[in-house]
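Researcher: Please predict.
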Amino acid sequence: MGERTRARVDGAAAEGKAPRTERGRKTLRKLLDASAVEFGEKGFHEASVSSITRRAGVALGSFYTYFDSKDALFRALVQDMSENVRTSARSALKEGMGALEIERAALAAFLAFAREHKEIYRIIDEAEFVDPESYRDHYETIAGRIRARLEAGSANGELREDLGELEAWAIMGMNVFVGLRYVVWGEADGEAGDPEEIASAVNRLIARGIERR
C-alpha cells in the first residue's frame, strides 16, 4: 500500500481510531469498499452495519474499532470517494499538457472512474440530506481544483483573464451531469458513450462556446 493510499485510508477512520497496522488498514479498506456497494444498492437508510461487515468479510466488532456509527462510516466514505475522484483526475494529467487538454483529460478520467463506480452518484446525492457538510465540501473542493487550473491557464496566457469561481462551478456542473447521462443512465439504456469521446466533445464546448461564428 503506497504512502498516499495509506494516508487516505488512515484518515477515513473516526478520530482516534486510525489503524496502526497494515492489517488494520486492509480491514478499513474492506469496510469502505463494502459500504460503497451497500449504500449504492440500498441507500443510507436501508443499509445496515451488519450487512456491510458481511460484505467486507470482517467481524461486526471490527466495525466499531474504526467507526462509532453508520453515519460516521458514511461521512468517511464520501470523503474517500472525493479523494478517489481527485486521484483519478491527477493520474491522467501529464507534464506539458495545455490548459484545455488538462480539462479534457480530467473529465475523461472522472467519466472512467464513474463508469466503474456508478454508486458515487447515489451516495453523493444522499449526502445532501444525510450529511450536508460533506456534500457541500465534496463539490466545493472539486470546484476549487477546477478554479485553480483555470487561473493557472489564465496566468500563462492560454485562457481568458477573467476566469474564476463561476466558470469553475459551471464546468463542474456540466461534467457531473454529462457523467450522469452518458455513464450512469447511458449504460442502463444501452447508450453508453466512450469517456474520451465525451470529454473531447465537452472540451470543444468549453473552447468554442455555442455562439455561431
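Model: The chain has a mean pLDDT of 91.
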